[in-house]
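batch_manifest entry 22 of 60
target: ABC transporter substrate-binding protein
source organism: Kaistia terrae
requested by: lab member K.T.
priority: normal
notes from requester: please return tokens only, no post-processing; we will run our own comparison against the previous entry in this batch. if the run fails, retry once and flag.
--- input ---
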Amino acid sequence: MGKRLLTLLGAASALSVTVGAGLSGAQAAELKVMFQGDPYEITIITDVAKRFEAANPGTTVQLINTPHDAYNEKIGAAVSAGSLPDILQLDAPFLANYVWSGFLQPVGDLLDKALVDDMTASNVAQGTYPIDKALYAIGLTDSTVALYGSRKQLEELKIRIPTSVDDAWTRDEFEAALKTLSTAPGVKWPLDLFRSYGTKTEWITYAYEPILVSMGCDVIDRTSWKATGTLDGKACVDATTEMQNWVKQGWVVPQSAGQNQFYAEGRPAALAWGGHWFYAEANAKMGDDVVVMPLPKFGEKGVSPNGTWIWSVAKTASDPAAAGKFLSFMLQDPAYREAYKAHAGFPGLKSFAAASPLYADKGAMAVAFEQAGKSAVARPPHPAYPTITLAFQNAMTNIFDGADPQAELSKAAKKIDDDILDNDGYQPFGQPE
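--- output ---
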């Protein structure tokens, strides 16, 4: 998950670039690389390819830039046409679906061993298929969501500022803070949950599922792989009813208000439930007044999300070894890393974290990086994830708009279970009844 969900890149474009992967002329390969990203990502990936060519002439790669919002559909079209690219980017929670569908091959033996050893535990988790435990994807970055506030405002209102994951606000403290902030001078809304990202975006599952998990439930049981009795069980109904109440109290920035109310003129939103990428934007406007806090502990422990856009190799790749060399070069390229560092990229490699003062000990985002090791929970690693996330997105949108939580969650759970049943349990994930 990253800032890409905010960006529409327009029509897909294909850039033909000649690159090399440390291969001799006799080993030359032709690679196709499909990806999406912000403009700076398109630029740096293209530049890396050119540097790769300068060092190792003879191998050709075609860069296929695809709009974020149409990405999964483009993958499906490529599969139908029998033209999957050799290397493809994918959003981490969709990995299980891609592997189960037979699109990908393991990359552990294709990449430089030092690079694989450098991965954080959270990065390994986002790229691993739960059935065979093999690594199918890797990224320079991972992601998280944190709670942002104004240090000056919180101190003036005598609201405690947590400094570590273990020190996070409790459920009662969080709601007490919202109540206090609701009456503070100049505050129109105590909390921005970024409903402005839209009603059908991955943000809803990514950012809100951790609240459910912290409260003792989930969108699906991760052992039986059934949603009925879990998503529509009492714990999830209570959790979503509580979240609905935040909206009813007028505490949450409405979708119609647009984005970035946290640092807009007058700061109408006191807190922001924002992705790691949001820090750079807020800091540019508010400077050192921005304070980054861990997500609250709604139950016994806090829970945070992970997962972002990662790199994989298609099972049909024309030259898997060349594909692995290309990815190894790109992910270790200094300029590639600097580009992501400049945009507050959340470290997925330990060496990248060490070189990123923002996430280092005492850094402004240190508590966000701490979450990756202590409280990150991946979205359900199941082939039915596309159905799971869409069903949950629709349910949460309707609940926030005032619909009955029990009815909406039961409807969503049935859609998920029906999809799994229709696919015979997505074996070997589970046996159909």
